[in-house]
Design a protein that fits this description.
Blueprint lengths: L1 E5 L7 E11 L2 E13 L9 E5 L10 E6 L9 E2 L4 E2 L5 E2 L5 H8 L3 H27 L18 H25 L25 H4 L1 H24 L1 H6 L4 H13 L4 H14 L21 H28 L4 H6 L2 H24 L8 H21 L7 H16 L3 H6 L5 H4 L1
Antiparallel strand pairs: 1-5, 2-3, 3-6, 4-5, 7-8
Length: about 425
């Protein structure tokens, strides 16, 4: 059975791309894709297919159903074999070479999906930031501390609004980065090319394109965090915004698992990092540069790279020690999953900061430097426990980041409307 699927509507014909293991000659030959009709135009289902509609949900609202396949006849022509074949003599041939390689080939649809998910994450973050600004602008408070004070004079609301705008700019830069044409990569035994990612243990996604899968995980997590913050800071209207903020949050939540589970992507990324499998630890360089001024992109990158490198080294050491002491791979990794996830997340944040630093330094984004800096400061605040734990930053880091954030917000606050206007959101979104 497969759940969830969007197959419940009784009047919509559906054909599924079914991923299934091909067994031939008593041996598993790998996971292939098969085109299987699930519902005919007249609403009936073929023999062996059962579709069980699911109750409605307030999350991502589509026609959810469970699909059960039992004894379904699949004709040879429905096998999307990608060069594989069973010849006239009954022999099986697959140019992929192995079941593991075939699985990676079959998952090759993932990169376009990830690019779309990253772009959608950026879009809902832009919309959410615009909605929060529209809710906050012109609103006054009645608190006794300062009656009739504008809501955005309060740091918590100001930093929420500007932080959402900053996250939207950052994810937009990430989306532009992953959707721009890529040069052809030389395929060498050491590095491979796109679609020749590292070996995986938890799921096949990272073997298709490790960095793109990792950015999908980072983008959906950032989108959900930002949308949720916008919802909270919009008060009752945020709670009631079923077709906007709540729907955006549902979409971001859904794609934490859909298109490759985020946690499993993090674990496989961490495993590749620990094994140095098509991964080179970043060089933080001598530092901290620029006197450690957090306004400097060079400082963001130094801290992110140094923290990532130290975490990778510690993770690799702990796994190696466990194996040396007689533990098996499961035991060695199972004891270090928290560190593994945080190490891979550090890698993701470093890649995002590199994209932001490059964008902030480009001529086209001359006016976006401060807003991207704000996002970098928020990322470093999120990473602060790891940076301090690893000794990559000295005590007092948070005070330094908070002060830099206050100064950056003071710089950005007068231009918040212009920053949001650049998103060119449809009027109904911010009405």
């Amino acid at each position: 059975a497969k759940f969830p699927t969007n197959t419940a509507h009784p009047a919509v014909a559906k054909t599924a791309a079914v991923y299934a293991t091909l067994v031939h000659g008593g041996r598993e030959r790998g996971v292939f894709v098969f085109a299987v009709p699930l519902r005919r135009p007249d609403g009936t289902v073929p023999p062996g297919v059962r579709i069980v509609p699911a109750p409605e949900t307030s999350g991502l609202q589509i026609d959810y159903a469970a699909v059960l396949l039992d004894g379904v006849h699949v004709p040879y022509g429905a096998w999307l074999r990608d060069g594989a074949a069973i010849d006239a003599a009954g022999a099986f041939h697959d140019p992929a070479g192995s079941p593991a390689a075939r699985l990676t080939r079959s998952m090759g649809i993932a990169p376009p999906v990830w690019r779309a998910v990253i772009s959608a994450s950026a879009a809902i973050t832009r919309a959410s930031a615009g909605m929060l600004l529209a809710h906050s602008a012109g609103r006054t408070t009645l608190g006794r501390l300062a009656p009739r004070r504008p809501l955005t004079d309060y740091r918590n609301q100001q930093e929420a609004v500007l932080g959402a705008l900053a996250a939207a700019y950052a994810l937009t830069a990430v989306a532009a980065h992953v959707t721009e044409p890529r040069p052809a990569f030389p395929q060498t035994p050491d590095q491979g090319g796109p679609g020749e990612g590292p070996d995986t243990a938890w799921a096949p996604w990272s073997a298709v394109d490790r960095d793109l899968a990792l950015l999908k995980a980072a983008a959906t997590a950032q989108a959900q965090e930002t949308v949720s913050a916008c919802r909270v800071h919009s008060g009752a209207p945020g709670f009631a915004a079923v077709e906007r903020l709540n729907a955006y949050r549902g979409l971001a939540h859904a794609y934490q698992n859909a298109g490759g589970d985020n946690e499993l992507i993090l674990y496989d990324t961490a495993r590749a990092m620990a094994d140095l499998d098509r991964y080179v630890p970043p060089d933080p360089g001598a530092g901290p540069p620029d006197g450690g001024d957090p306004h400097s992109p060079r400082v963001w990158l130094h801290l992110a790279r140094d923290g990532e490198r130290r975490m990778r080294d510690r993770l690799a050491g702990r796994v190696a020690d466990a194996l040396r002491d007689g533990g098996d791979a499961f035991t060695a990794w199972n004891a270090n999953l928290v560190l593994a996830a945080r190490t891979a997340a550090a890698c993701a944040d470093r890649i995002v900061l590199e994209i932001c630093a490059a964008e902030a330094g480009s001529a086209e984004a001359a006016g976006a430097g401060a807003v991207l800096r704000l996002h970098a400061l928020n990322v470093l605040e999120r990473r602060a426990p790891d940076l301090l734990n690893e000794g990559a930053a000295p005590p007092g880091l948070l005070d330094l980041l908070w002060e830099a954030r206050r100064r950056t917000c003071d710089e950005l606050a007068p231009n918040a409307a212009e920053l949001a206007a650049a998103f060119d959101l449809p009027a109904p979104v911010t009405a």
